[in-house]
Amino acid sequence: MYNNKRFFVYLPIAFALMLIAGFFLGATLVRNLPDNKSLLQGFKSQKYDPINDIISYIKQDYVDSVDVDALKRSAIEGIMTDLDPHSQYISAEEFNEVNDPLLGNFDGIGVQFRIEKDTVYIINTIPGGPSEKAGILAGDHIIKVEDKLIAGVKITNNEVMKLLKGERGTKVNISIARRGVKGLLVFEITRDVIPTYSVDIAFVPEPGIGYIKLSKFSATTSEEFNQALITLKSKGMKNLVLDLRGNSGGYLQAAINVADEFLPDGKLIVYTQGLNRPRQIANASKTGLFEKGNL
């Protein structure tokens, strides 16, 4: 009993000594650490860049080697999915491929396509082109090009372009999924020179009424459209049906030039403005070819 009492007396003293020792040890360590305030300021002064920081950590600590450019591309594409459906990232390598159909002509199968998530679908076939002649339709989904599966996998515009384009006279097999048709449809298509006309159709269906179907706004659109207007006016056109269904877009300036033919000089056509970019105004700059008449 005597020993137990002595133990209970010494136990609080031991705890007190441990606390005192811990206090002095902590104070010594704090004095030897960098100033807390300067340390915090050091953190605050570093620019926070989560994407590059994460990529740096992956390069340094990930178990396998990685394609850094592919990681950055995936990050950018992920960002773009949170924007509107018409916002799309085009790399420097892809730019020429995307731009070719708007410049005049190129060798290929003659389709306009769009990638949504993991699906490549046909927007339009170019009139008179190899795909239209083979029977490809707008709305078709491209599943395979030759033996390469391009549906259900991550693929870029540039990669699809490289598969579809090629020298005139060469052949390519394309497997298509079509709504309402069971199984895949396989088309053998012979590549050819693809003229990229903007005006698909221009005629007078009824006396006094003209009809123009405009498929895109390219480098040649203004010249083609003006010539179509002049031709239809010479045939007695008083009113015009301008069909923009299926128009795949293109150059803003080409669209402005078309609108300029319907509006008097000085009339506002369009303006562009960004969150941190001043407003830029485009006004009609001449007497248009079709200022009078119903559109």
Short description:
The chain has 295 residues and is α+β, with helices and mostly antiparallel strands. The chain is 37% helix and 25% strand.
Tell me the span between the first and last alpha carbons: 111 Å
Instruction: Give the proportion of residues in helices.
Output: 25-40%
Total number of distinct structural domains: 3
Count of alpha/pi helices: 9
As a whole number of angstroms, the C-alpha radius of gyration is 33 Å
Structural class: alpha+beta
Shape: flat
Number of strands: 13
Could you state the CATH homologous superfamily of the largest domain?
Answer: PDZ domain
Write down the secondary-structure element order. Answer: HHHHHEEEHEEHEEEEEHEHEE
What attributes does this structure have?
3 domains; 3-stranded mixed β-sheet; 295 residues; 13 strands; alpha+beta; 2-enoyl-CoA Hydratase, Chain A, domain 1; Pdz3 Domain; flat
Q: What report would you give on this structure?
A:
This protein is of the alpha+beta class and 295 residues long. It has 9 helices and 13 strands. Strands 2, 3, 4, 5, 6 and 7 form a 6-stranded antiparallel β-sheet that branches. Strands 9-10-11 form a 3-stranded mixed β-sheet, covered by helices on one side. Helix 5 (92-99) packs across helix 7 (157-164) and helix 8 runs parallel beside helix 9. The model has no long low-confidence stretch (mean pLDDT 84).
